[in-house]
Amino acid sequence: MSGRVVPDPAHTCADRAAKDLVTAAFRAIRGRYVQDRHQIAAAVLDADGRVHLGLHLDAMVGRAAVCAEAGAVSAARLVTDAELIAVAAVRYPKPTEPPLARVVPPCGLCRELLLDHAPRLAVVLPGATSGLTPLAGLLPHKYVGTKWPTPQPTADQP
């Protein structure tokens, strides 16, 4: 990547779990970044303490793209049924941008997907003192279908 130094954004995190997830996502995207193909990585922590990684997959047809958070949940579900506890996503800068990776919140589609598979999930949000925030608070009126029984999270659940 042309020798450019991009610092780990984990220094903005308020607690150890958030720092560890951000660092894991940052290391993943730093090693796999390809402009216009892979710009975000996500890390999901399960109840057994394992971290699962996902990589953003862009596509020529935008609707076919896959978010990093979806990839991380899929990776987790390949190896465990443990509850998913927390998630962080990091966007790597394009060569034309300042060399600052940043924590990014899950998009609306990912918020729905994550809460389908982890109703008590916490998320690392961008900010000067990022910690873990209940994802349900970011999507207070989640869609609930009839495919399977879904526990209803509340905004105050960690």
UniProtKB/TrEMBL annotation:
Q: Which CDD domains match?
A: cytidine_deaminase (cd01283)
Q: Which InterPro entries match?
A: Cytidine_deaminase-like
Which superkingdom does the taxonomy of this entry point to? Bacteria
Name of the protein described by the UniProt record: Cytidine deaminase
Organism of this sequence: Streptomyces goshikiensis
Lineage summary: Bacteria, Bacillati, Actinomycetota, Actinomycetes, Kitasatosporales
